[in-house]
């Protein structure tokens, strides 16, 4: 009986402890793991090529690397590896991207079913939609030492560049854990928001089934020359891994308010659509402005009209959205509204440009009974100016309107004067005066009930009609 108890004791101990293991992919003319105990990496889409590359970061040393085209990534099959990667791990990559002009996917844990995961954006590491790091030394066409680690007990996820921690947050919903598909994708875009991949090259990938301490991450970076140019000294993969535990289920992402206070950030995703057809607009331009209409960011949307922008928490944001063949629109989100929009995404709509159709400039305001423009008119005035600037052959006719209060003839004259005020603004911004004509209609063309105080202001407006576009 005692012997049986001792056997059971040692069996329990053996199931609860096992050696730390690591696998290394050196890309020496193949995609094999060097010990042969882990499966080779799989090619996503079409295979890249192996070639000698000069590594300036390693004193111009030459070695074999795997070169991949845009969105032609690699995949680690965790099921074929008997669940090698669990909820505690470290992944180390030495790679470069040829383009870093927008969001670029590095690692995907959910096999293309989620937009969440590891990206590089504007030279910063981030784990979308949870944490955005400070600017890191990541540049296009330069190799980067990139490390991500996750502690399964504390759920702390950390990301490093060149040995320095840049992102750290609590991965409460296991977004950084491989899901039921059992695969880990590198450099390959998801199916949610497209056009977020880059071509590039990778020199080494290491996968550890444990958390590598920050001091060891730093040492690994400092000894890059040894690990990349020579065979790295890492524990061999055990031939008898512990019994596989069920992989965690995919859970609903936390919202942006749950980000740690250390580096507060949130990301707004959205789509630009045709106001009339509700279809996506190809490659719209989204500008982020401050309250003084100074441009702070500019990005190009995808062919499906999709965009994604990172912001710091707690700021008001002003947008200007434009696209060929459409009239620009402006949007203002308060800090609270931006936080809410970042949870579910947003849709911006643009009105298609049509010859002879009247477009109302809803937010143009004048001093009561006078032609002087009020400051709040600037937003719509700038929209009209941007349209004229971006369509240099366009010619427009401005229409001025008033309500029916006061003398008819005075209102007619006032509507003409207000048209001249709008024209003067456009001319002051460089638009040729001969491209702008104008007419005043006074109170003769109401669009709302003049007998009701709440609707009468709608009749005090300026519209424009496109007379010529090309």
From TrEMBL:
Q: Which species is listed as the source?
A: Runella aurantiaca
Q: What is this protein called?
A: OmpA-like domain-containing protein
Pfam families documented for this protein: Laminin_G_3 (PF13385), OmpA (PF00691)
Cellular compartment(s): Cell outer membrane
Alphabetic keyword roster = Cell outer membrane, Membrane
Write out the ranges of the annotated region (Disordered): 233-263
Q: Predominant location of this chain? A: membrane
| Keyword presence, Membrane | yes
* Compositional bias annotation for Pro residues: 233-246
Q: Which GO terms describe its biological process?
A: carbohydrate metabolic process
Taking every annotated instance into account, which residue ranges of this chain make up the domain OmpA-like? 353-470
Q: Name one GO cellular component term.
A: cell outer membrane
**Superkingdom of source:** Bacteria
GO molecular function terms attached to this record: hydrolase activity, hydrolyzing O-glycosyl compounds
List, alphabetically, the InterPro entries matched.
Bact_OuterMem_StrucFunc, ConA-like_dom_sf, OMP_bac, OmpA-like, OmpA-like_sf
């Amino acid at each position: 009986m005692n012997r049986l108890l001792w056997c059971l004791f040692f069996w329990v101990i053996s199931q609860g402890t096992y050696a730390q293991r690591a696998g290394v992919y050196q890309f020496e003319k193949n995609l094999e793991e060097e010990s042969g105990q882990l499966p080779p990496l799989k090619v996503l889409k079409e295979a890249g090529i192996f070639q000698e590359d000069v590594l300036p970061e390693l004193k111009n040393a030459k070695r074999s690397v795997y070169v991949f085209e845009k969105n032609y990534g690699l995949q680690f099959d965790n099921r074929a590896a008997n669940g090698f990667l669990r909820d505690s791990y470290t992944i180390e990559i030495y790679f470069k991207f040829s383009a870093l002009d927008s969001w670029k996917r590095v690692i995907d844990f959910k096999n293309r079913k989620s937009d969440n995961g590891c990206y590089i954006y504007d030279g910063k590491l981030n784990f979308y939609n949870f944490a955005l790091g400070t600017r890191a030394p990541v540049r296009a066409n330069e190799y980067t030492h990139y490390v991500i680690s996750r502690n399964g007990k504390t759920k702390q996820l950390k990301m490093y560049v060149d040995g320095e921690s840049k992102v750290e947050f609590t991965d409460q919903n296991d977004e950084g854990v491989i899901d039921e598909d059992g695969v880990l994708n590198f450099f390959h875009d998801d199916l949610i928001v497209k056009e977020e991949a880059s071509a590039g090259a990778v020199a080494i990938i290491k996968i550890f089934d444990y958390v590598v301490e920050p001091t060891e991450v730093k040492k690994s970076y400092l000894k890059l020359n040894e690990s990349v140019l020579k065979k790295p000294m890492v524990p061999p993969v055990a031939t008898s891994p512990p019994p596989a535990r069920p992989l965690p289920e995919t859970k609903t992402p936390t919202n942006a308010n749950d980000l740690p206070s250390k580096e507060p950030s949130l990301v707004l995703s959205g789509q630009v659509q045709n106001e009339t057809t509700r279809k996506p607009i190809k490659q719209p331009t989204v500008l982020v402005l401050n309250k003084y209409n100074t441009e702070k960011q500019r990005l190009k949307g995808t062919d499906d009209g999709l965009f994604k922008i990172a912001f710091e928490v707690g700021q008001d944001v002003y947008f200007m959205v434009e696209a060929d063949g459409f009239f620009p629109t402006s949007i203002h989100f308060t800090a609270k509204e931006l936080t809410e929009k970042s949870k579910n995404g947003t849709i911006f709509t643009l009105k298609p440009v049509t010859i002879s159709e009247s477009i109302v400039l809803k937010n143009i305001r004048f001093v009561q009974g006078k032609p002087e423009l009020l400051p709040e008119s600037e937003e719509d005035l700038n929209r009209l100016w941007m349209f004229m600037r971006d369509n240099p052959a366009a010619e427009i006719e401005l229409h001025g309107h008033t309500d029916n209060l006061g003398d008819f003839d005075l209102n007619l004259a006032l509507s003409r004067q207000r048209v001249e005020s709008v024209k003067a603004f456009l001319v002051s911004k460089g638009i040729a005066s001969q491209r702008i004509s104008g007419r005043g209609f006074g109170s003769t063309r109401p669009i709302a009930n003049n007998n009701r105080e709440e609707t009468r202001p709608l009749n005090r407006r300026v519209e424009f009609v496109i007379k010529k576009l090309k």
